[in-house]
Specification:
EC 2.7.4.8 (chains A, B); four-stranded mixed sheet; 8 helices; alpha/beta; transferase (chains A, B); Rossmann fold; about 45% helix; about 210 residues; homodimer
Chain lengths: ~210, ~210
């Protein structure tokens, strides 16, 4: 008898340079982490210390393009001349096993995932511009108006980007960002709709 | 210049006997807790060790009934011959200060709070009947059918009660229940709508 609940798909994304990779690595270096990291496929060359099947699945352009044609990728993008993508079979299989899957991908990729898995959790990793902005406004007079204007512009752009996300985690400190992501996953497992579904499944058994 | 965000109102409730008081005490014994506990008013006599203004505000029936007439209570109920209630002024003032307020109240009280603060977070503390039920079903054959039937009935009743709540926290272990409640509060502060509102407030400043 299977009463296994489908896992959650968690998508961490955000503007490039915000520190998505750093946060993901810090998250997965924690001993108690329950998430399954979905390893990306790429055509870029391995960097020093990177291991095939651990950091990435390294493929040739031909192999990658075949994966695209055969619909084996949940999302993919070309970035600085290289392909990056997420193999769909691992994600689907792991979710079916009841495990939570974690993707760390670019913003365009996140939008592709949303089309296939609208029920996924989309977390926007934001630079600490909001708290910086707050500080700068509070210290107004001692700061240049140009700097404040730049921060305001950055905040406006972030505000627009985050619209398609469920949660926003500010990356002011990597440790704190990890705590927030873990809290979001834990809280989502406690959402009444999800728990009620578990109850209903159990009661249907009768 | 004030860009202070209103605090969250967190309501912990659930069937009587589930251990709401125990979880609340464990939660507030933690050194890093950021929640403000809203002390209830009651007409029952202080028990050994209970301190006025710490555990409860102890009042006479006359005083309590005057509070009801003057609309000073956010919610109240009579329970085994005594009144219990939540003073509204403390809740409102603390939320305005940008602090999160925590209420631990009976199910009927939670429904009254929902009318005044529909935006509050309602957390249903559930007995560990679901995981017990699962275990019992898995061990079927070695367990009496009566016991399973009782558990199923209990699960059905819980399922109905939790309908009006946002989250369900199973009280299988007090420590774990506390972790889940803290995660829910942290996650809710990261919800995009809330963060976007903060951004918008900052941008309006200009």
């Amino acid at each position: 008898m299977s009463v296994k609940e489908r896992g959650l798909l968690i998508v961490l994304s955000g503007p490039s340079g915000v520190g998505k990779g750093t946060v993901r690595k810090a998250l997965f270096s924690q001993p108690d982490i329950q998430l399954q990291y979905s390893i990306s496929v790429t055509t870029r060359k391995p960097r020093e210390g990177e291991v095939d099947g651990v950091d990435y699945f390294f493929k040739t352009r031909e192999q990658f393009e075949q994966m695209i044609r055969q619909n084996e990728l949940l999302e993919w993008a070309e970035y600085v001349g290289n392909y990056y993508g997420t193999p769909i079979d691992y994600v689907e299989k792991t979710l079916q096993e009841g495990k939570d899957v974690f993707l760390e991908i670019e913003v365009q990729g996140a939008m592709q995932v949303r089309k296939v898995f609208p029920e996924a959790l989309f977390i926007f990793l934001a630079p600490p511009s909001l708290s910086e902005l707050r500080k700068r406004i509070e210290m107004r007079g001692t700061e240049s108006e140009d700097l404040i204007r730049d921060r305001l512009q950055a905040a406006k752009e972030e505000l627009e980007m985050m619209d398609a996300y469920d949660y926003v985690v500010e990356n002011d400190q990597v440790e704190l960002a990890c705590e927030r992501i873990k809290a979001i996953v834990m809280a989502e497992h406690c959402r009444r709709e999800r728990v009620a579904q578990r109850y209903k499944k159990m009661l249907e058994v009768e």
